[in-house]
Predict the 3D structure of the following.
Amino acid sequence: MESILFTDEYFMKQALLEAQKAFSIGEIPVGCVVVSNNQIIGKGHNLTERLNDVTAHAEMQAITAAANFLGAKYLNDCTIYITLEPCIMCAGAIFWAQFNRVVYAASDDKRGFQKALVNLHPKTKIENGILANEAADLMKQFFKNLR
């Protein structure tokens, strides 16, 4: 029963809820959750405008929360779920935290780490495309509203 409930899709939906929070306060709608043993131990959404801080990306918020929860800087037994492919800065933080898995929904063809040919930790498994349409639709709606 537990394995049916706690799927990649389930956790990506939680990340999408974080992205919706960002959307509702005028931030680029990216959300993120960090999971350890089927428990969310860190979550975040973009806060760059609200905090006037270019480093306040969803991933940075969630990584900090997870590290504080565990009392450790390495998150090598954790999976990070992100609604958008991480940028180079966030990929660097993910690299140093040594995540076991990175799962992201939509690709970022302009600023994504894979386009920049940035590598994550060699032991990190990468998966993408889970709820990609939902994440991409939220981004499109956000930028449509700006115009």
Q: What stands out?
A: The chain has a mean pLDDT of 95.
